[in-house]
Amino acid sequence: MSTYTLTVPDEKQARRQRRKQQRRMGGGVLPTTLLWVIAVLMAFPLLWFLLSSFKPGSELFSYPLSFLPQQWTLDGYERAFERIDFGKYLLNTTIVATVTTVFTVFLCAVTGYALAKYRNPWLGVLSLCILSMTMLPGEVILNPMFMVVRDLGLYNSLLGVIVPSIITPTGVFMFRQFFVSVPDELIQAARIDGASEYGIFFRIMVPLARPIMLTLAIVSFQWRWNDYIFPLIILGDPNKFTLQIALRALVGAENIDWSVLLAASVLSMIPLVVLYLVFQRYITDSNINTGLKD
Amino acid sequence: MTATIPAASAAPAAEAPGRPRKRRQFGRYRLAPFLFTAPTAILFGLFFLLPAVLGFFYSLTNYRGWGEPEFVGIANYIELIGDKGFYSALGRTFLYALISVPLGYAMSLGMAVALQAARARGKTAARIIFFLPWLVSPIVTGVIWRWMFGESFGFVNFIIRGLGGEGLPWSSNADLSLFVVVLASAWGGAAFNMLLFIAALNNVPQSYYEAASLDGANGWQKFVSITLPSIAPTSVLVILLSTLSQMKEFAMIQSLNGGGPGTQNRLVVQYIYETGFQKSEIGYASAASMVLLLILMIIAIIQLRISRKTGGSW
Fold it and tell me: What angle, rounded to 10 degrees, do the helices at B50-59 and B282-309 form?
């Protein structure tokens, strides 16, 4: 008797709890499935590509295709190293991406700061100019760009790739947005304490903006690492090529040597992937909103 | 001048009212922002304004890279109007943008929403995976999709044949080939737009959704009547930025199909590149550049107008 009365509420409660749990699970299954279906779809081309690069040349084209290599090999990679001078291209690309990024971060930070914290007609015009750069991509005007670079004596030099791509409107607007959110009182207090305008920027604003700087640095490094059109028109000498141009030469060949191409493409991505995995939270957690007020 | 700036107005008051001092103070606020922005202005002038002006000048000449450019007026533009190659490149570019922008928009928004769903599990890992294609350069993106869609060796045709179908001519049929380009561009471009959407979704007040839940709205209703209107400014921005970037597509298509089969998928930047560098018709290529810039400007102005109407602000 007593046991009966005891079990009833227990069972009821258990059922209620189970139902609640079911509802929670049921609610979670659909979003989770959706999320992972998309993730698999996004990852698949990359994975297929990566796995293919470890297949021997004969297996690449033999039906039926298998997802995993039946015989793992680094043959494609060895031949890629023989075929292209990776060290040189890697060095060129690293120089271009690093130097440009340093200048980009610095110049975008000062410009964004000036646009956010001062107001005069000069800055108004400049702000419009930079906005127009978002609308009108300079890389479309290929020939005149080439001539300007040539007349500056920068044709066929890495500097010719670096200098024109330093200014990016996205970077300027990122910093402008950030510095607008920094209270003016901070600057006023520093001025009263006798700090110079330059001192305020370098000693107060730069440390504050460090996360944004890192975000832009990674984004800019990726842009410049993967750039194609500028290096293509400005670098004529194969010794000065960047990785992307070298890869293009492999794809453009009459008969594509797929095992070399696959391996070379994978190799060209490794530095960026490492950089991304180390710093990924600065990208994926950042509010990149290119000057947009929401 | 300084009176309008809250930042600057306080400083003179703090200083002793001396004339030379005041002038230095005033000069400082003009000089500092000028020095801060001078390098940017110089680079802008050299590598944006100057090429644009030069390009306009060359577009009025028949310059071919050597000798003196000869002034020909608007002859280049008149020739462009009748140039079938230019039209087909331009038309193909529009078609490409028209298909790939909505697809890219839907994909990046879908990814952002899926990542923001409160009850989904494994979001951190999914976020990292979603972002991987962003690292892949346009050239390599082209190679990856060329490999996936190879006619006799690609994975996709392998699956189609496995299901009993005929392999599709992904590289010898122009429309199918463009379709692959569209897929590749949506894949490669989704991550960055997704970031913009995530930032916007985070700014939608949670209380709206709670109120809607109390009123019995389902997930789809909430998405259509709360989420979409709330992120409208970001939507406009994403559509604008992706339209602009699709209109200047070059690198990815170079490695995916080289503008082929034949020249059927040659987009407009490739047309400019081939005319200007391979044929060295600099005047003519510059005219094509100017037309493209004009089109981009019109697109940007239209979209900014729309964004002003929907309440977005730059």
Answer: 120
**pTM (predicted TM-score):** 0.86
pLDDT tens for each residue of B295-309: 999 998 888 788 776
A105 touches chain B (CB under 8 A): no
What is the model's pLDDT at position B306?
Answer: 80
What is the H or E stretch that residue A136 is in? none
Chains A, B: CB contacts within 8 A come to 313
pLDDT of B31 above 90: no
User: Which tokens in the block code for residue A56?
Assistant: 């021997």
Number of H helices, E strands in chain A: 15, 0
CA distances from A154 to A78, A97, A98, A166, A229 (A): 35, 17, 18, 15, 16
Reported as a single tens digit per residue, the pLDDT across A182-221 is: 999 999 999 999 999 999 999 999 999 998 899 899 999 9
Distance CA B306, CA B312 (A): 9
Chain centroid to CA B55: 22
Contact A114 B33 (CB under 8 A): yes
Of A131, A141, A283, which is closest to B52 when you measure between CB atoms? A141
Q: Are residues A137 and B296, on separate chains, in Cβ contact within 8 Å?
A: yes
Nearest CA to A240 among A231, A248, A249? A231
- Cβ distance B40 to A172 less than 8 Å, yes or no, reads yes
